[in-house]
């Protein structure tokens, strides 16, 4: 099959490209989003990300970087592709773009769908104290992450001190195992297993209040809030709170007695074991 690849990073494209070629398919173009929302401002660091993608492009490969959702159908149709495969694209792809390839489009999603549809499934799994996540490969449909499931596997543990790099390595290993099966089923025309709407949940962007700790909340809720915030910032930042009379960003907490400051939460103590001054910008 002729395949258009859609991803968020040079690493994501390399993974999809390698799996597709190994399965006997031919990538014909790469598609990348420079903004979190169609028509929105270019996100911080997008130029560096695009540069790394360009540096790693296979010879003769086109890189498409649209600014508007309306441009997608014509961009995709021009390649006369059989399929699009997506792993990390923040926009809801319009139905006209999904019909621009012969078979449609597959998406790699880092949850056990229908749980945690949307842009932040891992962050919400951490926030909710889940012990593990999984990977689903499904057909893209009119709604976010709603199409039939072609391949799925759980079993990726979420450590208490979960960090992006080792977690994404495990996710990528799952993708390498699952995507060939999904590609084979897609080529056969399988609609996949329908998702159970009664079991669906949505993992959207965190609300503004998530960036501040309320010590009246349950101790486990605060602990997982700190874990999720730390994961989302690659360990560089945390939610703001007052600890020992100082306004700080809380980087780490412990549910068990530990070296640090003991704080009373709504249902018991929590130990704050790592902070930064709140005035300090993440990464500085």
UniProtKB/TrEMBL annotation:
InterPro entries membership: Formyl_transf_N (IPR002376), Formyl_transf_N_sf (IPR036477), Formyl_transferase-like_C_sf (IPR011034)
Coiled-coil regions listed: none
Xref: CDD domains: FMT_core
Cellular component annotations (GO), alphabetically ordered: cytosol
Molecular function, one GO term: methionyl-tRNA formyltransferase activity
Domain Formyl transferase N-terminal: 68-154
Entries under PANTHER family matching the protein: METHIONYL-TRNA FORMYLTRANSFERASE, METHIONYL-TRNA FORMYLTRANSFERASE, MITOCHONDRIAL
Protein name, UniProt field: Formyl transferase N-terminal domain-containing protein
């Amino acid at each position: 099959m002729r395949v258009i690849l859609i991803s968020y990073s040079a690493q994501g494209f390399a993974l999809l490209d390698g799996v597709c070629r190994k399965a006997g398919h031919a990538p014909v173009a790469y598609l990348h989003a420079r903004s979190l929302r169609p028509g929105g401002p270019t996100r911080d660091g997008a130029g560096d990300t695009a540069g790394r993608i360009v540096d790693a492009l296979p010879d003769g490969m086109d890189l498409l970087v649209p600014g508007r959702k309306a441009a997608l159908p014509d961009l995709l149709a021009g390649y006369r592709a059989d399929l699009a495969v997506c792993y990390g694209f923040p926009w809801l792809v319009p139905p006209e773009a999904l019909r621009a390839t012969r078979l449609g489009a597959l998406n790699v999603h880092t949850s056990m769908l229908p749980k945690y549809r949307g842009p932040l499934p891992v962050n919400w799994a951490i926030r909710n104290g889940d012990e593990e996540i999984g990977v689903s490969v499904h057909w893209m449909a009119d709604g976010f992450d709603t199409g039939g499931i072609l391949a799925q596997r759980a079993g990726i543990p979420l450590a208490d001190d979960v960090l992006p790099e080792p977690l994404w390595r495990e996710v990528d290993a799952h993708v390498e195992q699952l995507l060939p099966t999904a590609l084979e089923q897609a080529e056969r025309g399988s609609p996949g297993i329908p998702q159970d709407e009664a079991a669906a949940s949505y993992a959207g962007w965190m609300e503004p209040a998530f960036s501040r700790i309320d010590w009246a909340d349950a101790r486990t809720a605060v602990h997982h809030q700190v874990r999720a915030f730390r994961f989302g910032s690659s360990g560089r930042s945390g939610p703001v709170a007052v600890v020992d009379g100082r306004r700080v960003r809380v980087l780490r907490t412990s549910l068990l007695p530990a070296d640090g400051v003991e704080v009373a939460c709504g249902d018991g103590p929590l130990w704050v074991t790592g902070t930064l001054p709140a005035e300090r910008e993440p990464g500085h």
